[in-house]
Amino acid sequence: MTNTETERKVETAQTAALQLAQLSDEQRRTALLDVADALEARTDEILAANERDVEAAEELLADGEYTRAFVDRLTLSVSKVESIAEMVRSVADQDDPLEKTLEARRLDEGLELYKVAVPIGVVGAVFESRPDALVQIAALGLKSGNAVILKGGSEALHSNRTLFEIITDATADVPDGWAQQIEAREDVDTLLEMDNAVDLLMPRGSSSFVSYIQDNTSIPVLGHTEGVCHVYVDADANLEMAEDIAYDAKVQYPAVCNAIETLLVHEDVAETFLPAIVDRYEAADVEIRGDEATREFVDVEAATDADWDTEYGDLIVSARVVDSLGTACNHITTHGSKHTESIVTEDADRAETFMRSLDSASVFHNASTRFADGYRYGLGAEVGISTGKIHARGPVGLEGLTTYKYHLEGDGHLVATYAGEDAKPYRHEEFDGEWMPGRLAGE
Asked: How many other C-beta atoms are found inside a 10 Å radius of the C-beta of residue 416?
């Protein structure tokens, strides 16, 4: 595919976005349910394509280029396809994020201003490894009325092609071109230059990958460069609970960005807690790297300064013993990536202090960091997780794919009426009203 072809695809998506925004929620919902049914009906095709990708990945795993966690993220199964289809249905059943009146203000009698939720427009998503990401992003884009440009990683080439074909086949009644797929690195470079047509970029992948996207475009980027997440076991923690949370947060799915990379333990419970969690970690083949204080209680590898800033994405965890809640918060502020942090404690005041002190997108009390996920938050799914502060934070679902515009309903009103010596004053009254197309002010 040439760069000219990429430009054509983006421009087609731009045209489709205007038409897509005019579809009713029922039309968008029906299309998504059709996608879910098609995914299940064509499961064999999906798995056959995925098998080709996994076979190639296994060869690179044997050569040391991929990790087992990376290959696991790539691999699909019958149950995984079923869960992807259920995710699409979950998105379909979410409340319509569009045409909601966010604010209503009466400027004067018969002159009413409405702030209304609308789609962003064209969203470019560049992602690695997990083929289910393509379906998540497409489903959220369709439900929120956004056209999508999808670029998956080469490691999932055959899986992504098949999934994209199924999605577009199942949405024949949706404006043509609402979803576009690009594949080559040069196509991404072209995409990054099209700030006149692409409204938002959502990169998902390694920190170096996301940084590349951020550094090479003037298009707004919503994403995170790293997922350096923490669990802090406080002096007043229920240690059995803390052990379960620390284990789940690392082992349940180590390759994702909301898995912890560092475990912080208060010195008052370190002697009891560390041997127990290390035993469980080692039974799950987790490599533990500890600071000097940690290694006084358990026999583990020595942590280096670099470990505190590393997103392993694998069965590796660093551990540090701290002398206070303040020290734990300072460590997270210094080394964290503003993604997700959790405190395990029975002391509500310390939990509140922890959650107020940190500037991460998600902060938890007595819960695994693995809950930082769009589906688990009830968003249906997510296009990614944002650690920035502009527009959206944390798991980005339907609401994060909308913006707003102002609709003003008048009846021949003129600015001149409100200017000069005899100017009429504005009322500027908030009121409980909803904007509807074709509405006449005051009705």
From this structure: 9
- The torsion defined by the Cα of 415, 417, 422 and 425, in degrees rounded to 10, comes to -80
Distance of CA 196 to the CA centre of its chain: 24
Domains in the chain, start-ordered, CATH in brackets?
3-224+380-384+392-401 (3.40.605.10), 229-360 (3.40.309.10)
Given a contact cutoff of 8 angstroms between Cβ atoms, the answer to whether 163 and 134 are in contact is: yes
pLDDT digits (tens, 9 = 90+) for 320-353: 999 999 999 999 999 999 999 999 999 999 999 9
Return the half-sphere exposure (C-beta side, CA atoms, 13 A cut-off) of residue 263: 32
What's the pTM value of the predicted model, to 2 decimals?
0.83
In the chain, count H helices and then E strands. Answer: 13, 17
Nearest-angstrom CA–CA distance, 368 and 364: 8
List, in sequence order, every residue forming a beta bridge with 402; answer none if it has no partner: 119
Helix, strand, or coil (residue 322): strand
Beta bridge pairs of residue 407: 114
* Helix (H/G/I), strand (E/B), else coil: 56: helix
Residue-wise pLDDT for 356-377, tens only, equals 999 999 999 999 999 999 889 9
Beta-ladder partners of 288: 317
